[in-house]
Amino acid sequence: MPNQLTTRIISALAAVAILFCTVYFFQLKGVLWMSFFVAVIGSYEMSKLIFSNQYPKFSKTLFVGISMISLSYFQYYTRIKFVYLLFPMTFSLVAALSIIFHKQFNKIEDIFSYVAKFVLGLMYAVFLPLMILWVLQAADGMIWFLCLLAVVFSGDIGAYTFGTLFGKTKIAPLLSPKKSLQGAIGGLLFSTIAAGLFSLLLPTVPLGILLILGFFGGLMGQIGDFFESLIKRIAGAKDSGSIMPGHGGVLDRLDG
User: What is the per-residue DSSP string for 117-176?
Assistant: First the structure.
């Protein structure tokens, strides 16, 4: 356990350091492009999880299309209303590719099954990183963005630590056998504390508000974690990837 926890913490600190340098040296534009690459990697991991090696042409073409849609959004990110076009554009792309590659599937019914799972996964594999731009353009957006990341990473470390040390009561063993009630409580505690510490950078925001946001942010992170566990169970995979040692792939972090 100590080695795994150490790897997890070091990996999280490295990610925070990279993010800090990106924000410090490149500011909004740096975070913008980092979010784009996160969206691209997330869509790639999702295509691997859902389609595996069964439908490579469909999967690769869909991945390229989603990446181009994401890029087009980032190029015009100042036009916030453009975000509403993402959903119909993505739906049109998936529908068109389903028709073009329908002969690859064993049965017509398989198309709907795979596409439904993929689109559902894209709701946070691609669209969540894009929504980060809304946060960044708000007042003190960069600080709120860092607060959001702190809540997610702290909650993950807290859940892992408490779950490993004290975890006895399983929450949903069918979805995620290792997740426990004690781990969930530890995650919420760490997320709440992390948000509270940002009162030093957001003096105009009441501490109570930050604590409430930290608690519910941690709660939503854990719900997202179970959702991704469901997707991985369907795909028969342990992690979505291996880009972050101790954490897994981009999707394993986006679930927060």
Answer: HHHHHHHHHTHHHHHHHHHHTSTTHHHHHHHHHHHHHHHHHHHHHHHHHH--SBS-TTT-
